[in-house]
UniProtKB/TrEMBL annotation:
Organism: Astatotilapia calliptera (Eastern happy)
Alphabetized UniProt keyword annotations: Acetylation, Cell cycle, Cell division, Centromere, Chromosome, Coiled coil, Cytoplasm, Cytoskeleton, Endoplasmic reticulum, ER-Golgi transport, Kinetochore, Membrane, Mitosis, Phosphoprotein, Protein transport, Transport
Limits of the Centromere/kinetochore protein zw10 N-terminal domain: 27-85
Residue ranges annotated for the Centromere/kinetochore protein zw10 middle domain, each copy included: 162-393
Location (main, coarse): nucleus
Keyword Nucleotide-binding: no
Boundaries of every Centromere/kinetochore protein zw10 C-terminal domain copy: 446-575
Gene Ontology cellular-component terms listed: endoplasmic reticulum membrane; nucleus; RZZ complex; spindle
ZW10 C-terminal helical domain mapped to chain residues: 597-751
Protein family (similarity comment): Belongs to the ZW10 family.
Membrane disposition: Peripheral membrane protein
Gene this chain is encoded by: ZW10
UniProt protein name: Centromere/kinetochore protein zw10 homolog
InterPro entries per record: Zw10/DSL1_C_sf, ZW10_C, ZW10_C_2, Zw10_middle, Zw10_N
Subunit structure: Interacts with NBAS and KNTC1/ROD; the interactions are mutually exclusive and indicative for its association in two different vesicle tethering complexes. Component of the RZZ complex composed of KNTC1/ROD, ZW10 and ZWILCH. Component of the NRZ complex composed of NBAS, ZW10 and RINT1/TIP20L; NRZ associates with SNAREs STX18, USE1L, BNIP1/SEC20L and SEC22B (the assembly has been described as syntaxin 18 complex). Interacts directly with RINT1/TIP20L bound to BNIP1/SEC20L. Interacts with C19orf25 and ZWINT. Interacts with ZFYVE1.
Amino acid sequence: MASFVTEVLASSGKLEKEDLSGKISKMSRKVEDTKEEVCDMINKRYNDFLPSLQSSEELMLQVDAVSKEMDTLKNCIENEVCMKLFKVKVEPGLILFHEFHSAMEEFNKALLEKKYVDAANRLERARKSVGSLKRWKTSELPLLSALSSELTVQRENLIYHLGDEWKRLVIWKLPSTKEPAGEMSFLKVELKLSNACSKDGELKPPTLLSSVLQALAIQGDLQHKIKLFSQVLLKNMLKPLVMYASLSVRVTEQQGEGTTLALQCLEESDEERCAPSKVYNKLLLVLKTLHSHLLDVSIGDKKLSAILGELIWEEMSHTIIHECLVHSIPTNSSQLEKYNTVIKETEEFEKSLKEMEYLQGDSTDLLKYARDVNCHFASKKCKDVIVAARKLMTSKMHNTVKITPDSKLRLPKLPAPSSESKVKPESLKEEVTMENSKQLSAWSLRLPACRISESVQQLMELALDTLCEAVGSSTQSALQLFFTVRNIFQLFYDVVPTYHKENLLKFPHLAAIQHNNCMYLAHHLLTLGHHFRNHLPQPLSEGVATFVDMVPGFRKLGAQCFLAQLNVQRAELLERLSTAHNFCNLDDEDNYTAASKAVRQVIHQLKQLGTVWQDVLPVSIYCKAMGNLLNTAITEVTAKVMMLEDISSEDGNHLQTLCQTIIDEGPLVFIPLAEEKKNKKYQEEVPLYVKKWGTFKELVIVLQANLQEIVDRWADSKGPLALEFSSSEVKNLVRALFQNTERRAAALAKIK
């Protein structure tokens, strides 16, 4: 039609009537043909509308409406030539319908010839025509619904063909979902990239593949297709290659068939984790192969490799960091310099990805992580230290080592303090000379001989090693490591009393060890910070590096633990003495037996404790603890005897026998040292540790003394008896021991 109009306008400007009649006749025939084609198309879509119609009457009404519209359309098209020739305005809907019809014809032809880019473009042109028709005043025509439906069907048809071509060109072989997940299941993973349509020697992806990808892009379905591909690639090939050291990739190329990537197992590999360089090589082999045979295609202003890179990079780099680089971080500061190799390998890896356009930016999380090795080293070291410390704290406490006053921490030889950490001369105060002839004892600031848990000694060594790592480290790393050491001791303070709570109350041996452990830590915390402070960077070198503030807490913790055990032992002693029937009526055989048994049990308990704590507690603490418990026993016995109102001669003899047993055997529980000869000294010093020892001995004397002897020992409130008992207590004893006579009355009168 356009060529016809051009010919007419190119003529002299005159139209013969007979020529115009012929042309109109020819155009009428063309309109008839167009009408028949449209009717065929409507008939073809008839079944699509049938389910939505409610009755046959409604169907007939819509068919009549379409017929009327077609008649109108025919008349308009018949007059189109005349209207254009005589410069009459043509309805835009007619032009748009004609464009749609032409685009659909060209689409079908291109689709049959597998010219997918042309087909996608024609379909896009048809879509725009339908969109324009919807904005026209005839947008409510049933015909427009038919065109829209046809457009949808043909688009799905195109997407189906493109998907079918994609599946033929990119073929995955994956393990069954029923198989257990694991390293061996990935050995069945294969990816075949078919190049059956590519020319011999051609390195770029085949023309057909390029056409398929560009057509998908035009239709807006490429992103979805590549996203699905990226998910399968990550899950079944890229991530397993990072996670499993024994997996590698095998690339095979077959002439005329394509390239295959398959995962395989390295038999000689026994490494648990794969080194970063090996991981990078495996990943690059996969990505380079994909780039050469699949992704080196331009889609608009971007390469397909760039689209895939955007989809996989975040998750892939996250996997590399947490499954590879984390485990490659050195555990010792001496290995940090060697880590520069890993940083360079990471830079080369990213450089290769940028060359293939998988990466676009200059800085990534992967490279940042590798370069920030000092921080990660400190974080890893801190985590490992805390884990190791907690393991030591929850281990058995009864494995002990001997500590003597000569025992010292194996402090390392540290480098000279840096200029930054040295104290400036002007900040030093003037030296003050102290003139004092008295000097500190050689035993000052020395820990007394005792036994501590082997795990606590190892804990202190762990703290020392960590502080040594902090020396020479960056400021951030040094701060992390220093405060991790503080956290170790804080963790001990919180964890050990809770974790071992039951055993610390149940076993006196463990309570003594825990007491020593706390005192040992407190002792070394006094000077630990001072030893390292000048070798650490600021602000640690300015006084922050100290542990002195933790000393009172540890001393209190040790004391509370041991006092709790003493309270348990004290309660047991009192419970045993409670079975002595208050030492009353000992002339009764049963009562005497019960009282004698109670005394024997008390002595036995004290001897057992003396053996358990022997060579464990420091001598001074041992003697104080045993003296405290023995004092509890004799105080209770004294109190019971003093409460008696009537003591017969026989009762007095029995009481004197029981009390003498305590006096004779009590000192023998003082055996702080393993060598018996050395314990005699402490057994002779019992009065120093047992507060009521003198009182108890006076009581035994009184039980066997006569009235005159008692009066003599009172000696007008100046004798030894007066030092231990009040006058009222002595009088009560006299009344209980002696009958009411004049002699007793005279003796009582002298006791005042």
